[in-house]
Design a protein that fits this description.
This protein is of the alpha+beta class. About 30% of the residues lie in helices and about 15% in strands. The chain contains 11 helices and 11 strands.
Length: about 280
């Protein structure tokens, strides 16, 4: 990485590296998704009329399946994170090298339960990520990075992720729990940023358009939110997270995970939770 890239990351809290991942590795992950969709068709006796696999049609048939039964989409979501080529990407040595360059004198760790392939379906706003920092949902350490990479070309219609540039400099921000009866969310998905409009208005926003193979690196404390998918296709993206064992806050609470690890972050950081 260049000094300019490192400086930009420390200023903005995000960094985009085009074509970071090898095309063959991305294609292997896409092919795994294609085959898992086929297995769901076999399981539920749905005729497989798809065209042969290509990197552009890997998710063909997915929307038809969830149109028949939305729960089948949940099975696919849980299955695709177990594709071996995706696991290889999560622990690829280049990721650790990037982490070490952006975090001097760090000791990198992979967030257990912090990796997966996200599927944002058209107009399913209930499941989109609201404005948030990664830390309350993941914990581990204040000093962490999200590695985000799309599996489809991100367009305005697909709803790119939006970021508040430089917001990591404000540190960890307080949150409150939204009424689950109103938003239909639980755990980390129910957390809302306290004084959200006021906080977001202070920053310049960016919502980059990226392609398969591109990497977006995101500081754990950068404010970001999912876009609104208004396309006729799901937005497929990969996320995994690295953290720093040597960061004092994480070390003090034993590098605890958050909701995905069965821990309520409010017990670890009561000072960051506002009771409504």
């Amino acid at each position: 990485m260049t000094n300019a890239q490192i400086q930009q990351f420390h200023e903005d809290g995000i960094l985009i590296i085009p074509k970071f991942y090898d095309e063959d590795l991305i294609t292997s992950i896409q092919e795994g998704i294609y085959k898992i969709i086929g297995q769901i068709m076999v399981k539920y006796d749905v005729p497989d009329t798809r065209a042969p696999f290509s990197s552009t049609n890997f998710d063909e048939g997915y929307l038809d399946l969830i149109g028949r039964n939305r729960a089948w989409g949940g099975e696919i979501y849980d299955a695709v994170k177990q594709i071996p080529s995706f696991i290889r990407l999560v622990v690829h040595p280049s990721n650790e090298e990037v982490f070490s360059e952006l975090r001097e004198n760090s000791l990198a760790g992979v967030v257990s339960g912090g990796y997966g392939i996200r599927i944002d379906n058209p107009s399913e706003d209930k499941y989109r990520a609201m404005w948030h920092q990664e830390y309350p949902a993941q914990l581990k350490s204040l000093d962490g990075l999200v590695f985000w990479s799309p599996l489809v070309e991100i367009t305005e219609e697909l709803g790119p992720v939006a970021f508040c540039l430089g917001s990591q400099k404000e540190g960890a921000l307080p949150v409150y729990e939204a009424d689950p009866e109103q938003v239909g969310r639980a755990g980390a998905y129910a957390l809302k940023l306290f004084n959200e409009e006021q906080v977001i208005s202070k920053y310049n926003l960016t919502a980059p358009l990226t392609e398969p193979g591109d990497l977006v690196i995101i500081d754990f404390l950068v404010l970001h939110a999912s876009g609104f998918n208004r396309a006729a296709r799901s937005r497929w993206s990969m996320q995994f997270r690295y953290f720093n064992f040597a960061e004092p806050t994480g070390r003090s609470h034993g590098w605890s995970g958050s909701y995905a690890s069965g821990v309520d972050f409010r017990i670890i950081h009561p000072e960051l939770f506002i009771r409504s």
